[in-house]
Amino acid sequence: MTAHGLDSAFASQAAFRAVMKCFARPGEIRTLDGVAAPAPMAPATAALIRSLADYETPIWLDPSLSGVPAIGEWIRFQTGAPLVNGMRDAAFALIGNPSDLPEFSEFALGTEEYPDRSTTLIMQIERFAGYAITIEGPGIKTARRLAAEPLPDDFATRLTANRELFPRGIDLVLVAGEQVMALPRSIRVSLEA
Fold it and tell me: Are strands 171-176 and 30-31 parallel, antiparallel or unpaired?
């Protein structure tokens, strides 16, 4: 393996470990070593996809990302992952425009027997600031403030409805540049005053 190949392998392992730590500690922000990819794909989104996807990992792109052919080409070249048209067929859904976030029910929510057969959403935002909710649940000592923008106005309501499906439901990763935060289906949320 070349030095570049080793660097790439180590970077993928680091991204994988970082996102697993994010899921273990919901709402905690981590910084990844970003990966260069065609705009508007964020560096952390690219790092996560390169780490998590392979030729058996169907990926759905929202219109803001699917409308840039270079993004699909980059994903196929880097991972071999197939791009799918159906949201329910995707293991990962990449959301480049959070204001047009589809309803969670349009994605695979898993089954009672196989809750892991759900879609994980990787949603790009501008920054971890602004719109705030409080989250609680496994991996959070008491409660944690989550601030991110832009998000849909009904984001907290969507997360609450998603929690009610547990153990089914989607898992969500928010990405801002090289920063990531995970919101697993197990969290409980409330709007801040």
Answer: unpaired
